[in-house]
Amino acid sequence: MVLPALRADYRAIGGYVWRPGPRLDVPFTVLVADDDPVVSVDEAKAWRELTTATTTTRVLHGGHFFLDTRLPEVVEAVTAALSPADEGHLTAADGR
How many whole angstroms separate alpha carbon 20 and alpha carbon 23? Predict the structure, then answer.
Protein backbone atom coordinates (compact mmCIF):
# COMPACT_ATOMS: atom_id res chain seq x y z
CA MET A 1 0.00 0.00 0.00
CA VAL A 2 2.83 2.39 0.80
CA LEU A 3 5.18 1.49 -2.04
CA PRO A 4 3.23 3.14 -4.90
CA ALA A 5 3.20 6.45 -3.04
CA LEU A 6 6.92 6.20 -2.24
CA ARG A 7 7.76 5.31 -5.84
CA ALA A 8 5.74 8.30 -7.07
CA ASP A 9 7.53 10.59 -4.60
CA TYR A 10 10.94 9.43 -5.76
CA ARG A 11 9.97 9.76 -9.44
CA ALA A 12 8.80 13.33 -8.79
CA ILE A 13 11.95 14.21 -6.87
CA GLY A 14 14.23 12.58 -9.45
CA GLY A 15 12.69 14.30 -12.46
CA TYR A 16 12.05 17.76 -11.05
CA VAL A 17 14.22 20.69 -12.10
CA TRP A 18 13.37 24.10 -10.64
CA ARG A 19 13.67 26.96 -13.06
CA PRO A 20 13.60 30.52 -11.71
CA GLY A 21 10.90 32.77 -13.06
CA PRO A 22 8.65 35.63 -12.06
CA ARG A 23 6.88 35.43 -8.72
CA LEU A 24 3.31 34.18 -8.94
CA ASP A 25 0.39 36.43 -8.06
CA VAL A 26 -1.64 33.76 -6.25
CA PRO A 27 -2.07 33.13 -2.53
CA PHE A 28 -0.24 30.16 -1.04
CA THR A 29 -1.32 28.02 1.88
CA VAL A 30 1.60 25.98 3.19
CA LEU A 31 1.05 23.01 5.49
CA VAL A 32 4.01 21.70 7.47
CA ALA A 33 4.52 19.54 10.54
CA ASP A 34 6.46 20.72 13.56
CA ASP A 35 8.45 17.48 13.82
CA ASP A 36 9.11 16.72 10.14
CA PRO A 37 12.70 15.50 9.73
CA VAL A 38 12.61 16.23 5.98
CA VAL A 39 11.10 19.75 5.78
CA SER A 40 11.60 22.27 8.57
CA VAL A 41 9.07 24.98 9.38
CA ASP A 42 11.54 27.63 8.15
CA GLU A 43 12.03 25.75 4.87
CA ALA A 44 8.26 25.53 4.37
CA LYS A 45 7.88 29.25 5.08
CA ALA A 46 10.33 29.97 2.25
CA TRP A 47 7.44 29.34 -0.20
CA ARG A 48 6.45 32.97 0.47
CA GLU A 49 9.40 34.04 -1.69
CA LEU A 50 7.66 32.61 -4.77
CA THR A 51 4.50 34.73 -4.66
CA THR A 52 3.53 38.38 -4.49
CA ALA A 53 0.24 37.43 -2.81
CA THR A 54 -0.47 36.37 0.76
CA THR A 55 1.19 33.25 2.12
CA THR A 56 -0.41 31.45 5.04
CA THR A 57 1.67 28.83 6.85
CA ARG A 58 -0.15 26.29 9.00
CA VAL A 59 2.09 24.33 11.38
CA LEU A 60 0.49 21.09 12.51
CA HIS A 61 1.74 18.68 15.14
CA GLY A 62 3.34 15.57 13.72
CA GLY A 63 6.06 14.18 11.52
CA HIS A 64 6.58 13.78 7.80
CA PHE A 65 3.30 11.87 7.32
CA PHE A 66 1.15 14.38 9.20
CA LEU A 67 -1.27 14.47 6.25
CA ASP A 68 -2.50 11.05 7.38
CA THR A 69 -2.43 11.58 11.14
CA ARG A 70 -3.91 15.11 11.16
CA LEU A 71 -6.51 14.65 8.43
CA PRO A 72 -9.32 16.75 10.01
CA GLU A 73 -6.96 19.72 10.41
CA VAL A 74 -5.62 19.28 6.87
CA VAL A 75 -9.15 19.18 5.46
CA GLU A 76 -10.07 22.32 7.41
CA ALA A 77 -6.98 24.17 6.18
CA VAL A 78 -7.56 23.20 2.54
CA THR A 79 -11.27 24.04 2.77
CA ALA A 80 -10.49 27.44 4.28
CA ALA A 81 -7.86 28.16 1.62
CA LEU A 82 -10.28 27.34 -1.20
CA SER A 83 -13.28 29.11 0.28
CA PRO A 84 -14.76 31.77 -2.05
CA ALA A 85 -15.17 33.97 1.01
CA ASP A 86 -11.39 34.43 1.06
CA GLU A 87 -10.65 37.48 -1.06
CA GLY A 88 -8.25 36.75 -3.88
CA HIS A 89 -9.08 33.08 -4.23
CA LEU A 90 -10.38 31.64 -7.46
CA THR A 91 -14.13 31.29 -7.69
CA ALA A 92 -16.26 29.88 -10.47
CA ALA A 93 -18.51 32.96 -10.39
CA ASP A 94 -15.94 35.64 -11.07
CA GLY A 95 -13.18 33.65 -12.78
CA ARG A 96 -10.41 35.22 -10.68
Answer: 9
CB 24 within 8 A of CB 52: yes
Residue 44 placed within a domain: yes
Residue 24 phi, psi dihedral angles, 5° rounding:
-80, 155
Report the number of distinct structural domains present in the chain.
Answer: 1
DSSP state of 22: P
Helix (H), strand (E) at residue 31: strand 28-33
- Tallying the residues shown for the chain, one arrives at 96
When the pLDDT of each residue in the chain is averaged and rounded to a whole number, the result is: 87
Expressed as residue numbers, the domain containing 42 is 22-82
Contacts of 26 by beta carbon, 8 Å cutoff, 6+ apart: 51, 53
**Residue of 10, 13, 14, 48 whose CA lies nearest to 32:** 48
Query: Is the predicted pLDDT of residue 72 greater than 60, yes or no?
Result: yes
